[in-house]
Amino acid sequence: MKICVVALGKIGLPLAVQFATKGHEVIGTDINEKVVDLVNAGVEPFPGEAELDMKLKQVVESGNLRATTDTTAAVAESEAVVVVVPLVVDEQYQPDFGPMEAATRAIARGLKPGTLVCYETTTPLGATRNRYQPLLEEISGLKVGRDFYLCHSPERVFTGRVFADLRKYPKLVGGVDEASAEKAVEFYQAVLDFDPRPDLARPNGVWDLGSAEAAELAKLAETTYRDVNIGLANQFARFAEKLGVDIYQVIEAANSQPFSHIHTPGPAVGGHCIPVYPRFYLWGDPEATIVRAARELNEGQPAYMVGLLDGLLGGLEDKRVVVLGASYRGGGVKETAFSGVFPMVAALREAGAEALVHDPLYADEELTALGLAPYHYGEPVEGAILHTDHAEYRDVSAAQFPGIKAIVDGRNVTKPELWTGVTRKVFGRG
User: Measured between alpha carbons, how far is 429 from 247 in angstroms, rounded to an integer?
Assistant: First the structure.
């Protein structure tokens, strides 16, 4: 097949490479000329994706993958189009459909009869049928089901391990009609490989969910579940503090029973997915009180951590406080999308504190560009909040923070013996 992948970001480029490794001719498109040039040179535009560097070089050298900024021309010579354009949201989680609609218009101008168009970007419910389909039909003059095929197939991968996740998880598809679903199943069976999953009720592979809406909802459901579960864990942790109970011991005990899967509490929920997709879900189901309550509780966690430190220090006015970790996720992940560091710093400043931030993955100028004041070990502070579970912080000690009086550990990772003489509070431990 000839396949066009629209948007060569952290998901789109690995997808394009995956398709090319299966022997298909792939054209990747992106509005960023620098990304296009790097891909055509066989150089990954962003580091950190396992196997991407080697695989990209191979498929570019073999001629199976090339890149261009001309989406319309690429679509015109393709049999299948996979769309992975980011749906950017603002601070209130309102999406900007502009980039996606611009890409859809470019696709429509090159669309020819018989082409399959698959949207993989996570989207509010109904967008594939009610927003993208009309644009495609109006501009192309073609009709879905008669002239071309349309489906939603949500990406379900983690950056850093995309190739492994593509093999591990079933590929969910939902067509806007039966013919589109059949084409989508046939397409993904030809471009993906799947690991055996004896734990699943049916074989791992391409799963047709029956409609585009079902496929959209499946992605929103799995991410919203995580947000609600984390919200529940955070609620338990707050209550455990009042009871003088260790919530981590409680969760371990509860999860020893096979029907309990309580997640780990923490100081914030960040990233492109978990804070955002429950809001997408709520647009379609505004009466979902459980979803709304969990989202609001999780959004309040950074301020709650600041409140804990305020209580330990007897106030934060004119105090120097360091937040440990700017990234929303530990494990060496360098990403600040919707990171809790931002509302945490805002809450500290509102309380009158001087808020500083340390993260081993970020240079001073990078933190400054994010609106954060850099901190270095050895500089005096009176308080600290551990926000990110970086491996480095598991062995951090009071000696590295001259004058420190209290620390709030939001991740339950610090070692008590390294904080002698300092008031140490672990979130969820009474």
Answer: 6
Domains 2-210 and 220-430 share a fold: yes
Cα 409 from Cα 386, distance rounded (Å):
5
Boundaries of every domain in the chain = 2-210, 220-430
Using the 8-state DSSP alphabet, how is residue 417 labeled? Answer: G
Domain covering 220-430, topology: Rossmann fold (3.40.50)
Has 273 been annotated as catalytic? Answer: yes
Mean pLDDT throughout 395-407? 98
Name the catalytic one among 219, 319, 405, 425.
Answer: 219
Q: Which one of 4, 118, 151, 273 is the catalytic residue?
A: 273
> If you search the block for the tokens 């996720």, which residue do you land on?
329
pLDDT 10s digits, 22-42: 999 999 999 999 999 999 999
Helix (H) or strand (E) holding 74, with range, is helix 71-76
Sign, CA dihedral 276-278-279-280, equals positive
Torsion of CA 140, 143, 144, 149, to 10 degrees: -60
CB 374 within 8 A of CB 364: yes
Quote the CA–CA distance of 334 and 35 in Å, as a whole number: 19
Are the C-beta atoms of residues 84 and 6 closer than 8 Å to each other? yes
Q: Which CATH number fits domain 2-210: 2.40.50.140, 3.40.50.2020, 3.40.1350.10, 3.40.50.720?
A: 3.40.50.720
For residue 235, give Cα distances in angstroms to 125, 263, 271, 290, 304: 28, 11, 20, 13, 11
Which pTM does this prediction carry?
0.91
pLDDT (tens digit, 9 = 90+) per residue, 206-242?
Answer: 999 999 999 999 999 999 999 999 999 999 999 999 9
Return the structure tokens found at 416.
């008590």
| pLDDT confidence tier of residue 247, bands split at 50, 70 and 90 | very high
d(CA 361, CA 324): 11
Q: Residue 45 phi/psi, 5° resolution?
A: -75, -20
